[in-house]
């Protein structure tokens, strides 16, 4: 399918998640059936200052295409310069985050805080569009709180300044990730604009994705937390949408083999020390629901090197055979 002018193989996207959507995980999700992946959030302020940690978030290889690099910021001039810099990495899309509810982001006037000032939100988006030839997209929440649901108005303003696609997570900032996502708001945005609309929120299994497509008429579905420790969810959803068949859950051995692949790719990307720090939380999710998972988690928590973790996981595979 063509999404905002770019070919993608299917309408299932990996969400931008700080601390999760890094290069190794993006590669696994694409191999597992995702049609498009997003980076972790990249600070516009850090980008214009050429901060190494910020620019490292923008790095990717061709095994991670198609990819959207997501940016956040609260100043139009800074965003314009930052988009010019990020464009040099040649991503398929640049996405503007107008939905992050995290306190440290909204305190800076960025993310979901911009839903309180749609004129500024529109100004930032217009500056980004003018700064690059790469398609600009945006991610929105439904509003700041239950008394200010303004996602439709925000969507129309963004379309007016040349944003090529939108993603809607229909929870307010004050809801964070609590309560139910109101998929009806995705439908209302879809009716109000002519550009593609991606639905996000509460898609945990194949049946959820099918319902979101049917209820909202969205063009694509974004998967976030449900993909963590579970990168094969994209294949499961794809198969269900195409055939109605529910693929069996991966075996314990398959889960651990995928976990080991993720670990080894993380070591290649970051080196031993950082991979050890980053991967423990990922490994715990791969282990979720498995026999003796609590004991294996204790062993991994106490491990001091990735070789020890590999040994623990490989021993677990042998114990299952």
Brief summary:
By secondary structure, the chain is α/β, with parallel strands linked by helices. It has helices at 23-31, 44-48, 52-56, 76-87, 103-106, 118-130, 151-160, 183-192, 206-216, 233-243, 252-270, 272-287, 293-302, 306-320, and strands at residues 2-3, 6-7, 12-14, 36-38, 42-43, 67-72, 93-98, 136-143, 165-172, 197-200, 220-223.
Average pLDDT, all residues: 96
**Estimated radius of gyration:** 20 Å
**Could you state the order of secondary-structure elements as H and E?**
EEEHEEHHEHEHHEHEHEHEHHHHH
Described by the principal axes of the CA atoms, the overall outline is: globular
Strand order of the largest sheet: 3-4-6-7-8-9-10-11
Poorly predicted runs of 5 or more residues: none
Structure annotation, total helices: 14
Bin the strand percentage: 5-15%
Q: Mind telling me the CATH superfamily name of the largest domain?
A: Aldolase class I
CATH-defined topology of the largest domain: TIM Barrel
Beta strand count: 11
Give the class-level CATH name of the largest domain. Alpha Beta
Taking the alpha carbons of the first and last residues, their distance comes to 41 Å
Biggest sheet record: 8 strands, parallel, barrel
The assigned structural class equals alpha/beta
**How many domains make up the coordinates?**
2
Helix content: 40-55%
> At CATH's second level, what is the architecture of the largest domain?
Alpha-Beta Barrel
């Amino acid at each position: 399918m063509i999404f905002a002018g770019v070919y993608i193989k299917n309408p299932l996207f990996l969400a931008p998640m700080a601390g999760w959507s890094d290069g190794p995980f993006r590669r696994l999700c694409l191999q597992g059936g995702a049609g498009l992946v997003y980076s972790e959030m990249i600070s516009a302020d850090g980008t214009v200052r050429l901060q190494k940690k910020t620019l490292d978030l923008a790095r990717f290889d061709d095994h991670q295409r198609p990819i959207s690099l997501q940016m956040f910021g609260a100043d139009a001039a800074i965003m314009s310069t930052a988009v010019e810099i990020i464009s040099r990495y040649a991503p398929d899309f640049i996405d503007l985050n107008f939905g992050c509810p995290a306190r440290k982001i909204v305190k800076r006037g960025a993310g979901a805080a911009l839903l309180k000032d749609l004129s500024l939100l529109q100004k930032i988006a217009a500056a980004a569009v003018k700064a690059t030839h790469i398609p600009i997209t945006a991610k929105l929440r439904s509003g700041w709180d239950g008394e200010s649901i303004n996602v439709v108005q925000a969507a129309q303003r963004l379309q007016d300044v040349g944003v090529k696609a939108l993603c809607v997570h229909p929870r307010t900032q004050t809801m964070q990730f609590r309560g139910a996502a109101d998929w009806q708001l995705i439908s209302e945005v879809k009716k109000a604009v002519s550009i593609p609309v991606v639905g996000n929120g509460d898609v945990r299994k194949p049946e959820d994705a099918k319902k979101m497509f049917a209820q909202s008429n969205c063009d694509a579905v974004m998967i976030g937390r449900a993909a963590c420790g579970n990168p094969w969810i994209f294949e499961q959803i794809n198969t269900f949408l195409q055939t109605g068949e529910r693929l069996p859950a991966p075996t314990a051995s398959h889960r651990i083999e995928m976990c080991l692949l993720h670990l080894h790719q993380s070591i290649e990307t970051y080196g031993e020390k950082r991979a050890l720090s980053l991967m423990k939380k990922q490994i715990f999710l791969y282990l979720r629901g498995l026999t003796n998972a609590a004991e294996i988690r204790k062993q991994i928590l106490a491990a001091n090197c990735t070789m020890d973790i590999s040994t623990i996981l490989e021993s677990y595979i042998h114990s299952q055979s």
